[in-house]
Amino acid sequence: MKAHDGMYIGGAWRPAAGQDVIEVVNPVDEQVIGTVPAGTAEDVDAAVRAARAALPGWAATPPAERAARLAVLRDVLAARADEIAETVTAELGSPLKFSQAVHAAVPIAVAGSYAELAATYAFEEKTGNSVVHHEPIGVVAAITPWNYPLHQIVAKAAPALAAGCAIVVKPAEDTPLVARLFAEAVHEAGVPAGVFNLVTGLGPVAGQALAEHPGVDLVSFTGSTAVGRRIAAIAAGQVKKVALELGGKSANVILPTADLAKAVNVGVANVMSNSGQTCSAWTRMLVHRDQYEEAVGLATTAAAKYGERIGPVVNAKQQARVRGYIEKGVAEGARLVAGGPEAPRETGYFVSPTVFADVTPDMTIAQEEIFGPVLSILRYEDEEDALRIANGTVYGLAGAVWAGDEAEAVAFARRMETGQVDINGGRFNPLAPFGGYKQSGVGRELGVHGLAEYLQTKSLQF
Ligand code: NAP
Ligand code: MG
User: Fold this and answer.
1) Parent domain of 274
2) What gap in Å lies between CA 460 and CA 282, rounded to an integer?
3) Angle at the Cα of 2 from the Cα atoms of 170 and 46, rounded to 5 degrees
4) Given phi > 0 = left and psi -120 to 50 = alpha, else beta, which region is 30?
5) Domain for residue 131, yes or no?
6) Which of 20, 143, 219, 278 is the best mutation target for the ligand 1 pocket, counting ligand atoms within 8 Å of the beta carbon and taking the most?
7) Which of 8, 13, 162, 224 suits 183 as a labelling partner, its CA being 20 to 30 A distant?
């Protein structure tokens, strides 16, 4: 147990204004592993002031120099990859191998991608008799969740730094330790004082103060739709821009020509990964009625393999929430074929890998984001029916299509109301825009589209 002091503001670790702390708990054994200061509006104000003061200098720094800092940051993260993985495993509970392969590796790749983009992006372009300058939007407030704790910070901080913005990050209360590690890495990379700031604290206190601060030009938020809606309302009052990465209820559409076993196995792995705490997880599997029972059998077998392999969910509240959804699935008449509401272990916030068959599109478990290792398998009659079901939620973040040939899968994917679709198990691409249709969000993260969120244009006419 370590008591961490201070918050990273204006290039140094400064004592918090108040005395309150947040206890960080290891979800595997429920032990307190550390404390961090619970920031207040006063700390947020100091951080925003530091960012505002640093903004003009960083905005005027040549993109090549910003790119060089980002390249060093990537290298520092790579050098500290083991420490990052261990930290995420301790505060999120994910198995160490997954922390290494995803929680540590993806942010390194994303930081690297923005080092390259900062160096190559056309921050100035000509159109007719005008020169258009792409200028930094200003001071960014980044409010992030716990499910991919470092990735979600880097997916905002790296493009913000590349664009020439200054930033204040409020990480999730459950995962502040890897955020502190990132602040150390930014410092080590030689990013000028005040360009990056970190305030740990509670959402309704520090998070809200940050979103409300008049010195912020853009609020970039990842988390629940409920909080996203609040933040958008606050920002609207001040006419400031928001970028929102919210919930999802993505469909994994298995067309009759697909390799069924592969599609089901990859589909189950996708949902169980990170204990189901992935906003883009394919939590609804859509199978043709002729292949339905075979798919259910395959999914049941596949889910059993994850019993000992998956980590816990992040905290007791999420465990209770997921259990509530499983009970609701049973109560609404879905057929439980794997897992169930009982916790598989006495200690730790574990949830059994759970699969429901005979799920109909109107059931709660087919509509709401559960954020746990719970898969719903739905039956469709024909392709039009599959499309109706796939598009039949308020969300539209991601999805998957499997078919015998790529063109058939692409034709279906083009009709889906969603921001990202994996074709026959396509790999994650850190340069591809990520973000939602409908209530899954506003704006895009990653790659060149993610960079554009942090820029605004000024045109000069000649
Ligand atoms: P959340 O409350 O939306 O948390 C996301 C971030 O917003 C955290 O940093 C949080 O701080 C902060 N926050 C909370 N209330 C705020 C407010 N009034 N003003 C400003 N910031 C605020 O999400 P959660 O409670 O961690 O999880 C609840 C559900 O959200 C999950 O079950 C899941 O369905 C969904 N979720 C989605 C994603 C995603 O990537 N789309 C990620 C996480 C969760 P605290 O950490 O102090 O609460
Ligand atoms: Mg919360």
Assistant:
1) 251-429
2) 46
3) 30
4) left
5) yes
6) 143
7) 224
Model pLDDT for residues 376-417, shown as the tens digit of each residue: 999 999 999 999 999 999 999 999 999 999 999 999 999 999
Average pLDDT of the residues of the chain: 98
Task: Report which bound ligand comes closest to the CA of 175.
Answer: 1
Q: Are 223 and 145 in contact (CB under 8 A)?
A: yes
Written as six digits, the tokens of 290 are 């002729």
Report the chain's C-alpha Rg in angstroms. Answer: 22
On whether both 355 and 449 belong to a single domain, the answer is no
Q: How many domains does the chain have?
A: 2
User: How far is residue 60 CA from its own chain's centroid?
Assistant: 30
Structure tokens at 230: 């609040």
**Percentages of the chain per state (helix, strand, coil), in multiples of 5:** 45, 20, 35
Quick check: is 279 catalytic?
yes
- In a domain, residue 269? The reply is yes
Provide the pLDDT for residue 308.
Answer: 82
Atom 43 in ligand 1: which residue has the minimum CA distance?
223
Predicted model pTM:
0.98
DSSP state of 426: P
User: Is the same domain home to 203 and 56?
Assistant: yes
CA atoms within 13 A on the CB side of 456: 11
Do 311 and 284 reside in the same domain of the chain? yes
**Those residues with Cβ within 8 angstroms of residue 365's Cβ, 6 or more apart along the chain or in another chain:** 325, 326, 328, 329, 332, 334, 356, 359, 374, 376
Give the count of beta carbons closer than 10 Å to the beta carbon of residue 357: 23
Chain segment 154-189, per-residue pLDDT in tens: 999 999 999 999 999 999 999 999 999 999 999 999
Q: List the catalytic residue out of 245, 369, 408, 445.
A: 245
DSSP 343: -
| 98 token code pair | 């997954």
CA distance linking residue 314 with residue 274, whole number of Å? 10
Q: Which atom of ligand 1 is nearest to the CA of 228?
A: 3
DSSP class per residue in 363-395: SHHHHS---SSEEEEEEESSHHHHHHHHT-SS-
**Could you give the CA distance from residue 199 to residue 353 in angstroms, rounded to a whole number?**
35
Indicate if 38 and 140 belong to the same structural domain.
yes
Residue 446, helix vs strand vs coil: coil
User: Annotated catalytic, 184?
Assistant: no
